[in-house]
Amino acid sequence: MYVVFFGVGVGFILLSVLVDALVDFGGVAIFFLQPKLIAIFLTVTGGVGLILSARFDGILAAGIIFAISAVSGLFVAGIIYRFVIVPLHRAQNTSTFDKQDAIGTTAKVISPIPQGGYGKIRYSISGSVVTGPAKSKDGNEIGNGAEVSIVDIEDGTYFVRKHLDIMEILKSTD
């Protein structure tokens, strides 16, 4: 029985590494359903069971060996969850942002935006420097190095408007 636990645990670890990118079981309410934790539990339970049953086969009853093995599996899975998975999940969440949060952000044109065409902008958000394709919202040309505001994002393209400097504002009011 413990050989099966151990084998299934190892197989489950390999399978969970492959499937992990496709399914996210990161919710706290179902933390025990994470494939990594199930694999760790099965592997440790099987490994401890193999060790104990080989050494204490006649001394300890099978139920006691299973109980010790299962508690060991729960303990190790809990330790890994608390000290590895939770900190990694927190670190991942603090460094990510939604691109829609960039609307209203000031950016710098790093590749000129021709009239009606596409260029490239760079901006900083949540401590990360982001670059991306940009198009002028009003269709006007925007030169390299110009300061712009991100006004919309559609299909990965940033729609921007050039910042008006004081002289342009004064000329427009005359």
List the helices and strands and how they pair.
Elements: H1 2-19, H2 35-55, H3 62-94, E1 106-111, E2 118-125, E3 128-136, E4 147-154, E5 157-162, H4 166-173
Parallel strand pairs: 3-5
Antiparallel strand pairs: 1-2, 1-4, 2-3, 4-5
Helix pairs in contact: 1-2, 2-3
Features:
174 residues; alpha+beta; OB fold (Dihydrolipoamide Acetyltransferase, E2P); 4 helices; rod-shaped
Would you give an account of this structure?
The chain has helices at residues 2-19, 35-55, 62-94, 166-173; strands at residues 106-111, 118-125, 128-136, 147-154, 157-162. The termini are far apart. β1 and β2 form a beta hairpin. The protein has a 5-stranded mixed beta barrel. 18% of the residues are buried. 46% of the residues lie in helices and 21% in strands. It is of the alpha+beta class and 174 residues long. It has 2 domains: 2-94, no CATH class; 99-173, Nucleic acid-binding proteins (OB fold (Dihydrolipoamide Acetyltransferase, E2P)), CATH 2.40.50.140.
